[in-house]
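Annual report, structural modelling task.

Input specification for the magnesium ion complex:
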Amino acid sequence: MDGNGRWAKRKHLPRALGHKKGVETVRNIVRVAGKMGVEAMTLYAFSSENWNRPEEEISDLMGLLRQYIQSDIDEFVENGVRLKVIGNYRVLDADIVAMIDNAIEKTSGNSKMTLAVALNYGSQDEMLRAVQHIAQGVKSGEIQPEAINLGHIAGALDTADMPPLDLLIRTSGELRLSNFLLWQAAYAELYFTETLWPDFDQVELERALESFGHRERRFGGR
Ligand code: IPE
Ligand code: MG
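The model returned the following structure:
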């Protein structure tokens, strides 16, 4: 979800309003994706590198996160959305952590769509934590180094219980993955659009899915 700042700048609005509009887009896209039958969706909300932003902006983003969880949790329950967080979110403010844990617990029985929100997430950090986890298993004698397989790695990532990643969308014209789902994107189709995240809507999502539908996926075959 990229382009909130540029969206605000173009409209001569403060950055914070770009983020606010970005949250409205999240709300809309979660609804629309659910209706379209999307099984799982991961939103890159706050990266482990976003701590480098000015304190005020971080605090705006955290405030929006609080508001979003509070106001939309009932809708998740109603619409069968299971909330999940990837990334090391335990370092966020204690009230946010509690709110998240409560929302995860409240929606844990839902199965229509899994909504994973990436918070304090970085793909390299996720892989590092996975390696540490597996190394613990080696140390305790649970597993031999030569017995480690791809399944162990995938299973130690935050996305362990998610289906394979099919489509990765990046908005705002940047042509980078920016430390997002690097392992999981091995065979994902990539979709880049110039549209800024606050302007991303149902039509844009349909366009992305339409493009995905035309891709020939060979997974290394021929
Ligand atoms: C997305 O928009 C923000 C987050 C999800 C943290 P940006 O804040 O990166 O917007 P630009 O790139 O400055 O336009
Ligand atoms: Mg950006």
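The CA atoms of residues 50 and 142 lie 36 Å apart.
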